[in-house]
């Protein structure tokens, strides 16, 4: 018989570690707040391949291997390795992940006695969790975070996603667009609940713009754009760079701050640097590298607008973080973006892949007066506390 108090095993291959401290911080932020109400332990499987050391001769940062165990804010985190061939047999990653996690879960079960596996991303994590839930006879929850959209275009992974959602006891979606997407694939709408991400206003708030710009040596009379995210193709930094020459005709002193670094999806910094050089933008683009959450308010406070020409998102926390610092947002009409930037007082949504619309929206944003306090107020209304309350109630309902 299960205990009435939920004891969670958070299961996600994307989670901060000693080698990738910024990976999956949005999952950590969400679930560590749940940990203030319910006991949790984290299992973050790491892809591994016998010959991956050889691949590092060509890709030095390929699959860095974290320590096998760590404690973060008094929460235990395990990093078991699972067999994953780069570029091949990806429809089996979920199965390999589950098998490789059995021993770790068996050890944890003796002490933690978890009764819910809470997985993040439907594949491969959610699929692996659905297997482990049956093997350990515990409830399973899955949070849809956006990767389900591109992965569902692949037949093998689509089958795994639908199997995972079928066997899950409860499914959370960070945006309604994600819920509707998987329902369109054949998932049961009744078990899916939309619970967006939140923002921590104790970490994200507006600093004095003069001081923030002085920190980055940015002139006070310059117009400043900022983007934050892993340096991967999906985030669309290159799409912003390609419209900068048009923007510079209107604002010759424009500065574009790019905050981000290597991520599990890759690192396109070299190609971005080449693009900057080819377009003659060296004096207008600054690469600030990856910054911890506590320091992100510095570049956000130095900017006039936040822009992210992304190809796919679930519910992007970074929009709320930018708005908590008073910034209007320009982004693309993909995933749940329109649900976050839900009215014209917060920013502008443009069609994905439309460079003319993107440049026009940025120019309009830079030339308009925005009610900074109204933007901040909207961000604060999406606090983590409200999200966590819903999650805790749902977890309690699963075991009661």
Question: How would you characterize this protein structure?
Answer:
This protein has 400 residues and is of the alpha/beta class. It has 16 helices and 16 strands. It has an 8-stranded mixed beta sheet, sandwiched between helices. It has a 6-stranded parallel beta sheet with strand order 13-12-11-14-15-16, with helices on both faces. Strands 3-6 form a two-stranded parallel sheet. A hairpin with a 2-residue loop joins strand 4 (69-72) and strand 5. The longest helix has 20 residues, at 93-112. It is globular and about 60 Å long. The N and C termini lie close together (11 Å). 46% of the residues are buried. The mean pLDDT is 95.
Radius of gyration: 21 Å
Q: Would you tell me the overall average pLDDT? A: 95
| Number of DSSP helical runs | 16
Secondary structural class: alpha/beta
How would you classify the quaternary structure? single chain
Cα shape: globular
Main pleated sheet: 8 strands, mixed
Count of DSSP strands: 16
End-to-end C-alpha gap: 11 Å
Biggest sheet strand line-up: 4-5-2-1-7-8-9-10
Tell me what portion of residues adopts beta-strand conformation.
15-25%
Fraction of residues in helices? 40-55%
Parts with pLDDT < 50 across at least 5 consecutive residues: none
Please summarize what this structure is.
The protein has 400 residues and is of the alpha/beta class. It is built from 16 helices and 16 strands.
Topology:
Layout: E1 8-11, H1 25-34, E2 40-43, E3 46-48, H2 52-55, E4 69-72, E5 75-78, E6 81-83, H3 93-112, E7 116-120, H4 122-136, E8 139-144, H5 148-151, H6 155-167, E9 170-173, H7 176-185, E10 192-194, H8 209-215, E11 224-228, H9 237-250, E12 255-259, H10 269-278, E13 285-289, H11 297-302, E14 305-308, H12 317-324, E15 329-332, H13 337-340, E16 347-350, H14 355-367, H15 372-381, H16 384-399
Parallel strand pairs: 1-2, 1-7, 2-5, 3-6, 7-8, 8-9, 9-10, 11-12, 11-14, 12-13, 14-15, 15-16
Antiparallel strand pairs: 4-5
């Amino acid at each position: 018989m299960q205990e009435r108090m939920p004891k969670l095993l958070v299961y996600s291959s994307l989670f901060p570690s000693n080698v990738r401290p910024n990976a999956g911080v949005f999952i950590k932020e969400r679930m560590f707040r749940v940990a203030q109400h319910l006991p949790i332990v984290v299992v973050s499987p790491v892809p591994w391949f016998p010959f991956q050391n050889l691949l590092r001769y060509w890709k030095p940062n390929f699959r860095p291997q974290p320590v096998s165990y760590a404690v973060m804010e008094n929460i235990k985190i395990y990093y078991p390795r699972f067999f994953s061939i780069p570029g091949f047999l990806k429809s089996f990653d979920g199965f390999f992940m589950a098998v490789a996690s059995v021993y770790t879960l068996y050890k944890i079960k003796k002490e933690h006695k978890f009764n819910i596996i809470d997985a993040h991303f439907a594949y491969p994590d959610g699929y692996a969790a659905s297997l482990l839930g049956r093997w350990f006879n515990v409830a399973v929850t899955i949070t849809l975070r956006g990767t389900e959209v591109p992965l569902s275009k692949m037949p093998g992974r689509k089958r795994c996603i639908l199997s995972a959602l079928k066997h899950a006891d409860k499914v959370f979606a960070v945006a309604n667009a994600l819920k509707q997407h998987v329902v369109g694939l054949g998932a049961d709408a009744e078990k899916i609940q939309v619970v967006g991400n939140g923002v921590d206003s104790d970490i994200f708030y507006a600093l004095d713009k003069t001081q923030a710009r002085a920190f980055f040596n940015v002139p006070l009379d310059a117009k400043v754009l900022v983007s934050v995210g892993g340096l991967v193709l999906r985030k669309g930094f290159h799409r912003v760079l390609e419209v900068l020459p048009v923007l510079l005709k209107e604002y010759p002193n424009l500065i574009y701050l790019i905050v981000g670094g290597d991520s599990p999806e890759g690192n396109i910094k070299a190609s971005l640097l080449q693009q900057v050089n080819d377009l003659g933008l060296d004096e207008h683009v600054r690469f600030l590298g990856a910054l911890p959450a506590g320091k992100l308010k510095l570049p956000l406070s130095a900017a006039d607008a936040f822009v992210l020409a992304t190809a796919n998102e679930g519910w992007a926390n970074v929009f709320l973080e930018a708005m908590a610092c008073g910034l209007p947002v320009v982004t693309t009409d993909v995933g749940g973006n329109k649900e976050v930037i839900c009215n014209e007082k917060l920013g502008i949504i443009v069609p994905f892949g439309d460079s003319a619309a993107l440049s026009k929206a940025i120019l309009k944003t830079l030339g308009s007066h925005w009610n900074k306090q109204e933007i901040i107020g909207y961000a604060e209304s999406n606090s983590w506390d409200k999200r966590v309350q819903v999650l805790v109630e749902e977890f309690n309902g699963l075991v009661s």
